[in-house]
Specification:
The protein is α+β, with helices and mostly antiparallel strands and 107 residues long. 18% of the residues lie in helices and 40% in strands.
Amino acid sequence: MRIGLFTIAAALAICTLAACERSAPSASIGVGNPHPASSYVCEGTRLDVRLMGESASVSVDGAAAVTLPATGESGTTFSNGRQTLIIEQGQTSWAVGRAMPVACTGG
């Protein structure tokens, strides 16, 4: 009888410990991708933008991303001389070459 009670007590202890086991935390947003992309549409041109501090990685219409270094002191203009991304007061604009920047929607 003692062995039976010991077995039941051990089984209960194991079940109690199993119930206390914590599940692994789920992955947080941004884990593995510290620079999430934002999508914009600028007069029909689709941009996927990753801001990375001193530069921006920009994919135009699904093409391979290009790196645009930050220019100026404010860090809100990114340009490689041919393509320019401007972010001012929450508004995003895009320009190619010497064309005037066009407003973008999304983000």
